[in-house]
């Protein structure tokens, strides 16, 4: 069959979809074709790391079939539903479609979304998008459509069976070994529209291990995994001080830098081998993650908060060591670094704390003394940061309350006139982990992760009625009890 010509990341996703369903004999080469330039760079230096790949030259790979896997024997006996792989097309008519495009359309009123074989075919006004013959048409009336939400700080996708505090740095530990797909906590998150999560270790040590990116709508691990490793968890302060030796920040910074430099040196040995074919290094599971980090096939998700600690994230991890990183707490007065964060093109995925308050305890601990109850995401926005997302740190805040994090941000001053709250729940976190070309917005060529919601997701009165993943119904209130 003839294959449509898509750009590289979308070709990777489509190839995975086709390859695992037997519709083509081989996927596109992921090392070369499935890459794209990622991130802007301003001020990245090689320094002691030496020859670190600059942000502007780094590549991101959208790996794997994004949860689209061969149907099992029970599924094969069932007829594929409209929109799903192998089924007829699906046309969704809605009074308001929150497309959430990055630097593009925010909304389409009275629109249509066409879905076929798990992918979005077209989206636009109803008078511009023709519905092909044979498509199942669903008129959603006054309900809205939005992309599935993306959570970058999840601790509820497993059974809490990992010990990530053996050493002060544990880069070889893998969260994927602890995953329980479709567990009740993920299921409630799905009922609130959360379709993708980054499941990560805790923050009891400076490096807790490797996270894994997962789909929430499937009960089989093979269908749930998006990318493994999804990230490497770094916690620079705020919990690791309580580790065995009670380390202070100076020692933690020294130890973190030492671990990263050893990992980078290991990755460079492999890069030299891949280039020359000579002197194959010995595999060291502790440092394998750095091979992915150096290629930007994974990123560092950083538990960093408080101005001084977050400044070290920028200057040490990004500038000195040249490793892709995003902020994955960024609370208290981290917003004061907004100009430096924006200059480097770094994503701030903020939460669960929504405010910086002038209380004596927090002043003593963080050094921050705002003259008002300061909304954290509002502070970032006021400082000019454009890549702002939300997280729950579930179960600190329940996974199903991700959209309420956006509501609280608006309550404390975040400007949502350009629909940035919706982007902060969808496309911004998707971009932060390198998946922005596959999920996070309703655009042609992307995976059909779509929710039906009764209104603005930043309005606590709104609720989700239906969720599709890869064009397949994974939750609907018509067929089961409403979970959230």
Topology:
Layout lengths: L7 H13 L14 E3 L21 E3 L11 H4 L13 E9 L8 E10 L2 E7 L10 E4 L4 E4 L1 E6 L29 H8 L2 E6 L7 E9 L5 H4 E11 L13 H28 L12 H6 L4 E5 L3 H14 L4 E3 L10 H6 L4 E3 L4 E2 L3 H7 L7 E2 H7 L5 E3 L11 H10 L8 H6 L1 H6 L17 E4 L10 E6 L2 E5 L8
Parallel strand pairs: 3-6, 3-7, 8-9, 11-12, 12-13, 14-17
Antiparallel strand pairs: 1-2, 3-4, 4-5, 7-18, 9-10, 10-11, 15-16, 18-19, 19-20
Describe, in plain words, how this protein is organized in 3D.
This protein is an alpha/beta fold and 484 residues long. The protein has 2 domains: 8-76, no CATH class; 147-437, Metal-dependent hydrolases (TIM Barrel, Alpha-Beta Barrel), CATH 3.20.20. It contains 13 helices and 20 strands. It has helices at residues 8-20, 73-76, 184-191, 221-224, 249-276, 289-294, 307-320, 338-343, 360-366, 376-382, 402-411, 420-425, 427-432, and strands spanning 35-37, 59-61, 90-98, 107-116, 119-125, 136-139, 144-147, 149-154, 194-199, 207-215, 225-235, 299-303, 325-327, 348-350, 355-356, 374-375, 388-390, 450-453, 464-469, 472-476. The strands form 5 sheets. Strands 3, 4, 5, 6, 7, 18, 19 and 20 form an 8-stranded mixed beta sheet that branches. A 6-stranded mixed beta sheet has the order 8-9-10-11-12-13. A hairpin with a 2-residue loop joins strand 4 (107-116) and strand 5 (119-125). Residues 1-65 and 67-77 have low confidence and may be disordered.
């Amino acid at each position: 069959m003839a294959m449509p010509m898509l750009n590289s990341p979308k070709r990777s996703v489509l190839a995975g979809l086709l390859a695992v369903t037997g519709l083509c004999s081989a996927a596109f080469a992921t090392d070369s074709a499935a890459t794209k330039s990622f991130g802007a760079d301003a001020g990245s230096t090689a320094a002691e790391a030496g020859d670190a790949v600059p942000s502007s030259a780094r590549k991101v790979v959208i790996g794997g079939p994004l949860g689209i896997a061969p149907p099992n024997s029970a599924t094969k006996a069932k007829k594929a539903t409209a929109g799903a792989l192998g089924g007829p097309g699906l046309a969704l008519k809605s009074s308001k479609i929150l497309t959430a495009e990055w630097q593009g359309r925010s909304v389409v009123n009275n629109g249509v979304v066409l879905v076929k074989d798990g992918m979005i075919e077209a989206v636009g006004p109803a008078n511009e998008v023709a519905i092909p013959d044979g498509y199942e048409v669903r008129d959603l009336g006054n309900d809205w459509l939005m992309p599935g939400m993306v959570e970058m700080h999840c601790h509820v996708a497993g059974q809490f069976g990992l010990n990530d505090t053996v050493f002060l740095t544990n880069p070889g530990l893998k969260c994927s070994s602890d995953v329980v797909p479709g567990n009740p906590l993920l299921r409630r998150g799905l009922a609130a529209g959360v379709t993708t999560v980054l499941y990560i270790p805790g923050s009891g040590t400076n490096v807790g291990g490797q996270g894994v990116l997962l789909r929430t709508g499937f009960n089989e691990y093979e269908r749930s995994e998006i990318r493994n490793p999804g990230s490497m968890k770094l916690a620079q302060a705020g919990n690791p001080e309580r580790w065995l030796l009670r380390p202070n920040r100076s020692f933690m910074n020294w130890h973190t830098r030492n671990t990263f430099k050893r990992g980078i040196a290991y990755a460079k040995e492999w890069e030299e081998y891949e280039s020359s074919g000579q002197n194959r290094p010995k595999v060291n599971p502790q440092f394998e993650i750095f091979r992915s980090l150096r290629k930007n096939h994974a990123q560092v998700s950083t538990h960093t908060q408080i101005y001084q600690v977050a400044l070290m994230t920028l200057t040490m991890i990004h500038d000195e060591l040249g490793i892709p990183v995003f902020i994955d707490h960024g609370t208290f007065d981290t917003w004061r670094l907004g100009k430096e964060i924006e200059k480097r093109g770094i994503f701030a995925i903020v939460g669960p704390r929504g405010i910086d308050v002038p209380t004596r305890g927090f002043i003593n601990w963080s050094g921050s003394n705002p003259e008002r109850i300061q909304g954290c995401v509002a502070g970032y926005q006021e400082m000019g940061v454009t890549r702002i997302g939300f997280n729950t740190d579930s179960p600190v805040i329940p996974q199903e309350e991700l959209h309420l994090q956006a509501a609280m941000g608006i309550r404390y001053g975040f400007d949502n006139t350009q629909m940035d709250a919706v982007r902060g729940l969808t496309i911004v976190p998707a971009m932060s982990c390198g998946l922005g070309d596959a999920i996070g917005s309703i655009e042609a060529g992307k995976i059909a992760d779509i929710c039906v919601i009764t209104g603005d997701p930043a309005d606590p009165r709104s609720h989700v009625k239906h969720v599709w993943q890869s064009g397949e119904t994974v939750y609907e209130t018509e067929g089961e009890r409403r979970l959230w």
